[in-house]
Amino acid sequence: AWDYGFTQEWPLRGMRHQLSYTLPVHYTEGNGTGVGDVVLNYRYQLAGDGESPLHVAPRLSLALPTGSENASRGSGSMGLQTNLPVSYVLSDAFAAHANAGLSLLPESGDVDGILGASAIWRPHRKVNLMVETRWESAAEDVVLLNPGVRWAFDFDGGLQIVPGIAYTFALGAEDADAVFLYLSLEHPFRR
Hints:
The structure is a single chain. By secondary structure, the chain is mostly beta strands. Helices cover 0% and strands 64% of the residues. It has strands at residues 2-11, 17-28, 32-35, 39-44, 54-56, 59-63, 79-89, 94-105, 110-124, 127-137, 141-151, 153-154, 160-171, 178-186. The radius of gyration is 18 Å and the shape is globular. It starts with a strand and ends in a 5-residue tail after the last strand.
């Protein structure tokens, strides 16, 4: 099995308001490959401006039932999600992050919680070593531990490409461990 997600984010009249969408693709043996539930997001930069140590950016999302419920690629109904991420820059080399969220499927009344935390150490300007943990309360409680690394390539014109890799340990659950691959293309936004 594997999951792929593509997210595109745009500033809306400045960096305080952000709109984005996420297009997921899932593969499971026996069900094949297909699109999952598309998610539309609005994020508000409540605190932090790139220079301050504290950053808070609550997010509200609408999940559209575009994935097949029968093939385990979708929920079969509209959903709402909310997240409250908080980041704090401890020094030039260390940062800490926390995240709390809820997912609601109004049709079924299901509510799932998510809590996450991470620590990032930057030993070099373009390299981040990190460890993340995440708890999910879906059908069963799942705890994930995710140590990894990401690095940056800067190009003329402002484009930055950031690949990364992590190994995900599923702690205390029947879920299998997994490899997590990451790729971000950060480009300047011009009017």
